[in-house]
Design brief:
Blueprint (H helix, E strand, L loop, with lengths): L7 E3 L5 E3 L3 E2 L7 H13 L3 E3 L7 H10 L8 E6 L6 H15 L4 E6 L7 H13 L3 E7 L3 H8 L8 E5 L7 H9 L3 E5 L11 H10 L3 H11 L3 E2 L6 H7 L9 H8 L17
Helix pairs in contact: 1-2, 2-3, 3-4, 7-8
């Protein structure tokens, strides 16, 4: 079982990726994002998830460089934004992200959304970066099964990760099964449903049973379901409490109760209807 914050999943190319990471969406560039990344690293997190869109790559890089933790022990993800997609523009966007962070190599580089008629060219650029050693793993975000099938029909490298909205109200059963079948690691963004449904009776009851918060129950459920999770917060106490999920296990019955909360309910946009 997964018993420590440093425990990792092994991606389809052999690279290790921590099960728990910190998302920095909406953390302000500069002092705020540096502070939250520093807090996370001090707490024991080793995975940080940012993106070109977030506008805080520089602060993420600074915090990692200032940390006493050796670079090879941290795992950094960033993403190419929709307006930067296409072959040459993706290569340029990657170089911009890498320079902002001041990092020689990025651990995981993702296509942020499946922009129609562009994501295949974008993927070719990611394959080039991967083959040249600038990235340790490449993947996608917000891809449905039909996007993955289309991409995999003629790609040279199978995505290592698919980062999607995933929580007890949106369990994405078919997508998770497909990813597992093709050795693509599923990763959850918005695992806490933007704070909605945290007072759901199932979560409250399981929290009481295990002496944990609703948030901790959800994050533990993610990991036991085999899904990497990256809750975001700029609050030091929450960053620490989000990591306090490695001293208990949910039973098979507990997990079934959480699975039953599914309503195919999104807090974000459906990738098929995204306003690119």
């Amino acid at each position: 079982m997964i018993k420590h914050i440093s425990d990792c999943t092994i991606l389809n190319n052999g690279v290790k990726m921590p099960w728990l990471g910190l998302g920095v969406y909406q953390a302000a560039e500069g002092e705020e994002v540096e502070r939250v990344v520093t807090t996370a690293l001090r707490t024991g997190y080793r995975s940080i998830d940012t993106a070109s869109l977030y506008g805080n790559e520089q602060g993420v890089g600074k915090a990692i460089q200032k940390s006493s933790i050796p670079r090879e022990q941290t795992f950094v993800t960033t993403k190419v934004w929709n307006t930067e997609q296409g072959y040459e523009s993706t290569l340029a966007s990657f170089e911009s992200s890498r320079k902002k962070m001041g990092l020689e190599i990025i651990d995981l580089y993702l296509i942020h959304w499946p922009v129609k008629d562009k994501y295949k060219e974008t993927w070719r650029a990611l394959e080039k970066l991967y083959k040249e050693g600038w990235v340790r793993a490449i993947g996608v975000s917000n891809f449905h099964i039909h996007h993955l099938t289309d991409l995999m029909a003629d790609c040279a490298v199978i995505p290592a990760v698919n980062q999607v909205e995933y929580h007890p109200r949106l369990t994405q059963v078919n997508l998770q099964h497909f990813c597992k079948q093709h050795h693509i690691q599923l990763e959850a963004w918005s695992p806490l449903m933007q704070g909605k449904s945290l007072d759901h009776p199932t979560l409250v009851e399981l929290g009481r049973k295990h002496g944990k918060s609703s948030v901790q129950i959800i994050l533990r459920w993610d990991i036991q379901k085999g899904v990497v999770t990256i809750p975001k917060s700029v609050n030091e106490e929450r960053i620490q409490s989000n990591a306090d999920i490695f001293d208990f296990d949910l039973s098979t019955e507990d997990i079934a109760q959480l699975d039953a909360m599914n309503r195919n309910e999104r807090t974000g946009q459906n990738p098929d209807n995204f306003e690119f």
